[in-house]
Specification:
Distance between the termini: 91 Å
Strand content: 15-25%
Number of domains: 2
CATH topology of the largest domain: Aldehyde Dehydrogenase, Chain A, domain 1
Keywords: NAD, Oxidoreductase
Shape: globular
EC number: 1.2.1.27
Number of strands: 23
InterPro entries: Ald_DH/histidinol_DH, Ald_DH_C, Ald_DH_CS_CYS, Ald_DH_N, Aldehyde_DH_dom, MeMal-semiAld_DH
Radius of gyration: 26 Å
Helix content: 25-40%
Largest sheet: 7 strands, mixed
CATH superfamily of the largest domain: Aldehyde Dehydrogenase, Chain A, domain 1
CATH architecture of the largest domain: 3-Layer(aba) Sandwich
GO molecular function: methylmalonate-semialdehyde dehydrogenase (acylating, NAD) activity
Strand order of the largest sheet: 15-16-17-14-13-19-20
Number of helices: 16
Structural class: alpha/beta
Protein name: methylmalonate-semialdehyde dehydrogenase (CoA acylating)
């Protein structure tokens, strides 16, 4: 059986803790590999080694660091299929979806090629008599990224690209559920010219995470995952004097106005609600049609689309719509929440509870579910299900619809589908949510903008990727300079008369 260790100082190494975790094939329920779980001593050693390597890397001029990013872009494109296959094998995503995972990470690396421009400081000539003032952006030193199972390529690349291009060394602690892709990315970074020790990939669980949070050498921590863990990491990291940006859960609402193109809205909901088996923090999990007539038309459009979805393993071809969820525990939790929705009075319009895929009975497949007449007091509304379950909450008016999204504790993403520009503008201006789509169901910003949620979806002052990432991974130093005058007059060969 394959044994997955760590990537330390430019090579794969075996773990020494004696602890391992099984890496499952979610399509079959079989163990396909074991991954080492680092001890505190292993993590501390990797951090110390990274700190030594970082000094020379931080002193390397930004253009040379950017050339490593440029080379990495070419290598990721070269190995796109290899990376995607590793994701599909361990996560269960369809192959096209896995390639999309890599692609959205690649776009951030492309943005990082412009690091020399983004790292420029400011200058003021003659801020005072003979005084100039200027600032410079300098790397923090050693930083850490703790990344989730649902995007094994995208989120690690979002973290490592800006951090490395800024001159830092990075400790990457990926999810132990699908560790192969981050290890492959580390190999590509080395091939691109990244010096040994600048990127350390340390696999592990809570012990490894706590070792990062308590190590004084680590200056900043970035995290993506569930809200309880985001709150834990943010509070412990900041209490230890570290910068921290932590992104948590979501319950993303899509408002459908009466004038919306209903076919467009239904297609958007199916893709955004069921893609990747709903295991996305930007998935639409709540549809909010305005008015019963709108709701009835929407449900009529949704049902045949959802019933036609193809669920299966990635090996079945590119026409599969979504694959299994990541673990048996995730499947059990999704089905538990579905049962709670039925018990609490929601109408289960499309029932995927008895879904069974011949030949894959032990896999973690969950059929698609559609609820109607969901109310805000139900568990399926309040909880992030992280599965192929779409809830419909009927709103009597636009104000009620926008209020639902604004009152929810999560504020990651939201969308409105309408032909009315005034309604769309009002929605975009008033909504207290970090990322907004107008006739766009999953409004993930492109790499040169920033990604981040509000409320309990995000903790910290700066977002991921875009200019914010370079602000997060650098600190500003401001210099005030005045030079003595008179040197330009040349040497004096006579004594100056007494005044």
């Amino acid at each position: 059986m394959e044994q997955i260790g760590h990537w330390i100082d430019g090579k794969r190494v075996s773990g020494t803790s004696g602890r391992v975790a099984d890496v499952m094939n979610p399509a079959t329920g079989e163990v396909q590999a074991q991954v080492s779980l680092a001890s505190k001593a292993e993590m501390d050693g990797a951090i110390a080694s990274a700190a030594k390597a970082q000094k020379a890397w931080g002193a390397t001029n930004p253009q040379k660091r950017a050339r490593v990013m440029m080379a990495l872009v070419g290598l990721i494109n070269r190995d796109m299929d290899k990376l995607a296959e590793a994701i599909s094998r361990e996560h269960g995503k369809t192959f096209p979806d896995a390639k999309g995972d890599v692609q959205r990470g690649l776009e951030v690396i492309e943005f990082c090629i412009g690091a020399p421009h983004l790292l420029k400081g400011e200058f003021t000539d003659s801020a005072g008599p003979g005084i100039d003032m200027y600032s410079m952006r300098q790397p923090l030193g050693v930083v850490a990224g703790i990344t989730p199972f649902n995007f094994p390529a995208m989120i690690p690349l979002w973290k490592m690209g800006p951090a490395l291009a800024s001159g830092n060394a990075m400790i990457l602690k990926p999810s132990e559920r699908d560790p192969s892709c981050p290890m492959l990315l580390a190999e590509l970074c080395q091939e691109a010219g990244l010096p040994d020790g600048i990127l350390q990939v340390i696999n592990g669980d809570k012990e490894a995470v706590d070792a990062i949070l308590d190590n004084d050498t680590v200056q900043a921590v970035g995290f993506v995952g569930s809200t309880p863990i985001a709150q834990y990491i943010y509070s412990r990291a900041t209490a230890n004097g570290k910068r921290s940006q932590c992104f948590g859960g979501a319950k993303n609402h899509m408002i459908i106005m009466p004038d919306a193109d209903m076919d467009l809205a239904a297609d958007a909901l199916v893709g955004a609600g069921y893609g990747a088996a709903g295991e996305r923090c930007m998935a639409i999990s709540v549809a909010v049609p305005v008015g019963d007539e709108t709701a009835d038309r929407l449900i009529e459009k949704l049902v045949p689309r959802i019933e036609a979805l193809k669920v299966g393993p990635y090996t079945a071809g590119n026409d599969i719509d979504f694959g299994p969820v990541v673990t048996a525990a995730a499947k059990a939790n999704i089905l538990r929440l579905v049962e709670s929705g039925v018990a609490q009075g929601a109408k289960l319009v499309v029932d995927g509870r008895n879904f069974n895929l011949q030949g894959y009975e032990n896999g973690y497949f969950v059929g698609p579910h559609l609820f109607d007449h969901v109310t805000p007091d139900m568990d399926i509304y309040k909880t992030e299900i992280f599965g192929p379950v779409l809830s419909t909450v009927r709103a009597a008016s636009y104000e009620e619809a926008i209020g639902l999204a604004m009152d929810h504790e999560y504020g990651n993403g939201t969308a409105i589908f309408t032909r009315d520009g005034d309604a769309a503008r009002d929605f975009a201006n008033r909504i207290n949510i970090g990322m907004v789509g107008i006739n766009v169901p999953i409004p993930v910003p492109l790499a040169y903008h920033t990604f981040g949620g509000w409320k309990k979806s995000g903790f910290g002052d700066l977002n991921q990727h875009g200019p914010d990432a370079f602000r997060f991974y650098t600190r500003t130093k401001t210099i005030t300079a005045r030079w003595p005058s008179g040197i330009k007059e040349g040497a004096a060969f006579n004594f100056k008369a007494m005044d």
